[in-house]
Amino acid sequence: MAEIWPSLFRIAVGLYWLYFASQKWQGIGWMKPVLESAARANPIPGLHELLVSVVVPNWVPFSVAQSVAETVVAVLLIAGLAGRWAGVLGFLLAANLALTVAFALNDDGFRWMYYLAVIANAQIIVSGSGPIALGRFGWVPAWLR
After folding, report:
1. What is the pLDDT along the chain (145 residues), one digit of tens a residue?
2. Structural contact between residues 10 and 129, judged by C-beta atoms closer than 8 angstroms
3. In the chain, which end has fewer C-beta atoms inside a 10 angstrom radius, N or C?
4. Does residue 129 lie in a domain region?
């Protein structure tokens, strides 16, 4: 029974990403004010300027890329395909959110959701997909294992 925990954890993290990705499937217009407030509130030198001068003026491609990447991570993690690579992409997405959007929040407790996502994806990188994964089947191409 203990050997299935990495798989269950991976699926739970995949559902986490699926939830956040699904919020963007009907439209991304709501993300513009979020990015603007995140850029204004960001205290990290260099990143603040990058957000203000590059990301906010070009918010549409950045928002679409975030949505697509979250969806890809969710599908790969839930299916158990390319588990460690999906964990790496999830780690980068979570780090991005933790370094940008989390600073726009006034609620320190809610901010930890972003930090915990970084840790959860790091755990998937370390533990892999676990035994319950499509990547375990021989018919799955090697690049998806």
Report:
1. 778 999 999 999 999 999 999 999 999 999 999 999 999 999 999 999 999 999 999 999 999 999 999 999 999 999 999 999 999 999 999 999 999 988 887 777 778 888 999 999 999 999 999 999 998 888 888 888 7
2. yes
3. N
4. yes
| Interacting residues of 100 by C-beta distance below 8 A, sequence separation 6+ | 35, 38, 39, 42, 47, 51
Domains contained in the chain, number:
1
Please check whether residue 71 lies inside any domain of the structure.
yes
Sequence-ordered list of residues with C-beta below 8 angstroms from that of 80, at least 6 positions apart, any chain: 7, 10, 11, 129, 130, 132, 133, 134, 135, 136
Instruction: Establish if 16 belongs to a structural domain.
Output: yes
Provide the residue range defining the domain that includes 8. 2-25+61-144
Give the amino acid at 5. Answer: W
Tell me whether residue 30 is in a domain.
no
| HSE-up of residue 108 (Cα within 13 Å, Cβ side) | 0
> Is 28 exposed, middle or buried (CB count within 10 Å of its CB: 0-12, 13-18, 19+)?
middle
